[in-house]
Design brief:
Helix content is 14%, strand content 51%. By secondary structure, the protein is mainly beta. Strands 1-3-4-5-10-11-13 form a 7-stranded mixed barrel. A hairpin with a 3-residue loop joins β8 and β9. It starts with a strand and ends with a helix.
């Protein structure tokens, strides 16, 4: 699909906790033409928290919307041979961000109170923390060194994909490119999460409150570009 950058930013300190899921739990969210991807034999759903920095929309910096956190719940798919993600819900702290994203991409953005921070640790690593919603939190501690994962590894599978896949209001599939280099990952040396998944994402996700994560990751991050969305059949024609 031809890249048409709409948004540029830095995505930094990308922390994720991943859980094994069942296909039946994901099918209601699956856009047409996409298939559920699997890791080590099962679908995966991830809670991903990170910071936007130096955000530009069509090259413009919008005051008070340049640096902010985002937390999303996602799962992994393939569409037309490319790997991508489908978002179950995306949380941001400002109403204007959620409104524009819903209008242009029809993505399930929601505004909730949230804040985040990153602190150095005594051993040279980092402590990344997020507070969001009504009492939910995620804290991840990472080692000093960061290493680019090998292609084909679980870490690469979880952190490197090229498509966002969604649906328009009429049900047709939307595709947009998300481009960035392969991220270097810190070894996760500690994690704590108190997340009310049912309150934030709906009752069908309350089972995650008691689920044990299958994978943890903390990426350093990088500059990224996000293209304008295209209807799937037009996206193929523009490839």
């Amino acid at each position: 699909m031809r890249d048409r950058p709409f948004l540029t930013a830095d995505w930094l300190n990308v922390a994720a906790i991943t859980f094994a899921a069942e296909e039946e739990q994901l099918r209601p969210y699956l856009p047409g033409g996409a298939t559920i991807d699997t890791l080590e034999g099962s679908p995966r759903v991830s809670l991903v928290a990170f910071e936007f920095r130096r955000t530009r929309v069509s090259g413009l910096a919008i005051p008070r919307h340049i640096a902010f956190p985002e937390i999303n719940l996602r799962f992994y798919v393939r569409h037309g041979g490319e790997r991508g993600v489908v978002f179950i819900r995306e949380l941001v702290p400002r109403r204007a961000i959620a409104t524009v994203a819903r209008w242009l991409y029809n993505e399930p953005y929601q505004r909730v109170p949230m804040r985040c921070g990153v602190e150095p640790t005594e051993d040279g690593g980092v402590l990344v923390w997020h507070r969001f919603g009504r009492g939910s939190s995620l804290t991840v501690k990472g080692a000093e060194d960061a290493v680019v994962p090998e292609a084909g590894s679980a870490s690469h599978w979880l952190t490197h994909h090229s498509l966002g896949v969604g649906r328009r209001r009429d049900g047709t599939t939307l595709l947009y490119n998300v481009a960035h280099p392969t991220w270097a990952l810190r070894e996760v040396t500690g994690v704590a999460h108190e997340v009310d998944f049912g309150a934030l994402y709906g009752g069908r996700w309350a089972w995650l409150n008691d689920a044990t994560p299958s994978h943890l990751s903390l990426a350093v991050g990088s500059p990224i570009t996000v293209s304008r969305p295209l209807v799937a059949r037009r996206a193929r024609a523009a490839a």
